[in-house]
Amino acid sequence: MSEPVLMDRFARKVDYLRMSVTDRCDFRCVYCMAEEMTFLPRQQILSLEEILQVAERFVALGTRKIRLTGGEPLVRAGVVGLCEKIAALPGLVVETWMLVPLALIWLAINPTAVSVQPEFWTTTQAIWLAAAGPVTLVPLVCFNAAARHLPFTTLGFLQYVAPTLVLLLAVLLYGEHLTTSTLITFAFIWAGLAIYSVDIWLKSRGRH
């Protein structure tokens, strides 16, 4: 017995989901909401973790597209991290297979490329190149699985720290030159990290 398929009144399969992350908005567009609005109490709104769980269930049931709506979604703190987690739900396999046709086309129009020559695939370089696939994929799969279980505050903190780790690797391990523009960019990142950390610390003190 086949599973029921959700169809609209034009007999089109519904494989998308719209989820409102907030009913709040900075504007009062006349076609959308009244000048004086009564918003839902925050405790009645799904947490970001709960929204992610809903998205996971629908993706598992065949949903291919998820739209986040509001209100204005960007006024919801942490919505960017939510978008990243939802975007990662279908997994890396689909993204990889989407690149396969492009790679084949590139090989077809570049018959003289080194990687097209049969003798290339017997070299040490080819072996290392092939090994780069699982070496890159495994950490990404692990991150994808772990990110679903991390609090958004922790995930946001790690995303601030990651660029700094890359900078340290580039300068200390690979000896790359640190330009003034790069230093200014990371100064902003570090300032943001400091503000973010202090804010979390103050909020944690307020709970005690």
Query: Biggest sheet, open or closed, and with what strands and sense?
Result: 2 strands, parallel
H/E series: EHEHHHHH
The total beta strand count reads: 2
What portion of residues belong to β-strands?
under 5%
Strand order of the largest sheet: 1-2
Please tally the helical runs, counting DSSP H or I stretches of 4 or more residues.
6
Q: What structural class do helix, strand and pairing data support?
A: mainly alpha
* Mean model confidence by pLDDT: 79
Roughly what percent helix? 40-55%
Question: Over all CA atoms, what is the radius of gyration?
Answer: 23 Å
Number of domains: 2
Q: CA-to-CA gap between the ends?
A: 55 Å
Low-confidence stretches: none
What spatial form do the alpha-carbon principal axes imply? extended
Please summarize what this structure is:
The protein has 208 residues and is mostly helical. The chain has helices at 48-60, 79-87, 92-109, 124-147, 152-173, 180-206; strands spanning 16-20, 65-69. The chain folds into two domains: 16-90, no CATH class; 119-206, no CATH class.
Give structural notes.
Helices cover 54% and strands 5% of the residues. It contains six helices and two strands, in the order E-H-E-H-H-H-H-H. It has a two-stranded parallel ribbon. The model has no long low-confidence stretch (mean pLDDT 79).
How are the secondary structure elements laid out?
Blueprint: E1 16-20, H1 48-60, E2 65-69, H2 79-87, H3 92-109, H4 124-147, H5 152-173, H6 180-206
Parallel strand pairs: 1-2
Helix pairs in contact: 1-2, 5-6
Features of the shown structure:
208 residues; mainly alpha; 2 domains; lyase
